[in-house]
Write a structure and sequence with these properties.
Blueprint (H helix, E strand, L loop, with lengths): L1 E4 L4 E4 L1 E2 L2 H4 L3 H11 L9 E7 L9 E6 L5 E6 L8 H12 L4 H15 L5 H8 L17 E6 L4 H12 L4 E11 L2 E10 L2 H23 L3 H17 L16 E8 L2 E7 L3 E8 L4 H12 L2 H8 L4 E3 L7 E8 L8 H19 L3 H13 L6
Parallel strand pairs: 6-7, 7-8
Antiparallel strand pairs: 1-2, 3-8, 4-5, 5-6, 8-9, 10-11, 11-12, 12-14, 13-14
């Protein structure tokens, strides 16, 4: 890693340090940094436990346990200046222990973590949010034998890298991420590089894995939830096109549990949700910048009583501080997979998304103006 001197048009190397000489420890520091910012590992991960020791007849404990966006369990093992020679065997044991965890056990493990570290938020709700509002009953967690392993260390011994490469050849997904501290005077920096596999190879492997999973998922789902949703969306689209609402004139039925349409501002959409147990409409603010989304939401939320009155009922104002997007929604219970209920659900969604559009459509020019103002100030994009 180098520091750039623009004035001199030169670069100078930063001083590589050791965690030990800086007084950093594995659990108190490196582990906590990753737990608080799992995205530093190069993807969206949900940490569900620290120092997990819930294995029968053993006192062993793994550093961090996470879920990835496909529902796979990810065992994260952290070392400081040296990976050690036994880390692969140790972590393979952890992965084997985790292979038998059921969905209910994973939820219980995550709930224990939230109760201890996150003031008791609902594990089911957090999981639903992380998996982009997929119905909890439809979530598949820890499928098959697809547990993953991530090693984090400043240096990896040859026996570790050799074993990791061999395991990858046998379809065990392992990543080695090199974490090295650097110093600029009193300022400390942390650099993380994935050294195994190289990024290009990893994307190929992930693509093959996701293709296999998608094929298996399609085989299971076409007979039930996907096919049910496609049939429902046809009922909904027929219903809303007979109304005076033109939002969904150019939308086709899909297999998803939600359907969206534009508002006139990029990244801000109207959404209708068809769930197994609920129906919902949303004004969804999901532009590329989290800061921008929260800013627009706060501008609207300052007038929430006015908008609630225009809509005709109290809306749910969800800032979603732990996510990039925000939403303003209204929900009601429904027996979604009972086809006899579909005409009523379609009518409810049509009525309420129409009311939502009439509530927020007059605000679209104002939102565009706010975004233009931020662009002029150099803090946003149109």
């Amino acid at each position: 890693m180098y520091q750039i001197d623009k004035n001199a048009n030169r670069i100078s190397p930063l001083k590589e340090k050791k965690f030990s000489e800086l007084g950093f420890r594995e659990r108190e520091h490196l582990q906590e940094w990753i737990a608080a910012n799992p995205e530093v590992l190069g993807e969206e991960l949900l940490i569900i436990q620290k120092e997990f020791d819930g294995f029968d007849e053993t006192r062993e404990r793994l550093d961090l346990l996470a879920l990835d966006k496909q529902g796979h369990l990810v065992v994260i093992e952290n070392k400081l200046d040296d990976s050690g020679r036994d880390v692969t065997w140790q972590t393979l044991k952890y992965a084997s222990y985790c292979a038998g965890l059921t969905k209910s056990q994973i939820v219980a493990i995550y709930q224990q973590y939230l109760d201890k570290y996150e003031q008791g938020d609902s594990a089911q709700q957090r999981l639903t949010d992380f998996f982009d509002d997929i119905e909890f009953d439809e979530l598949t967690l820890n499928p098959g034998s697809d547990q993953r392993i991530i090693f984090v260390a400043a240096n990896f011994r040859r026996e570790v890298t050799s074993t990791a490469l061999w395991l990858m050849d046998h379809r065990i997904r392992i990543q080695c991420i090199k974490a090295v501290p650097f110093a600029i005077g009193e300022q400390l920096l942390l650099k993380l590089d994935q050294i195994i596999p190289v990024k290009e190879a990893e994307q190929y492997m992930i693509g093959i894995s996701e293709k296999k999973q998608e094929e298996q998922s399609n085989e299971r789902s076409l007979a039930n939830s996907h096919l049910i949703r496609q049939k429902f969306w046809k009922v909904f689209l027929d219903t809303i096109r007979e109304s005076d609402c033109r939002l969904y004139d150019n939308v086709n039925p899909s297999k998803d549990g939600w359907s969206s349409t534009g508002s006139g501002v990029s990244g801000i959409v109207y959404i209708v949700v068809f769930g197994r147990n609920c129906m919902r409409v949303e004004f969804f603010i999901g532009r590329g910048s989290q800061e921008e989304n929260k800013y627009l939401f706060d501008q609207l939320a300052a007038r929430r009583e006015e908008f609630n009155q225009k809509f005709g009922a109290p809306l749910d104002w969800e800032r979603l501080d732990h996510k990039k997007a925000c939403r303003i929604s209204y929900e009601a219970p429904a027996d979604g997979f009972n086809s006899d209920e579909w005409p009523r659900i379609a009518t409810w969604l049509t009525d309420h998304v129409s009311r939502l559009e009439k509530t927020f459509r007059p605000e679209i020019p104002n939102l565009k103006s706010l975004l233009a103002q931020r662009q002029e100030e150099g803090v946003g994009e149109i």
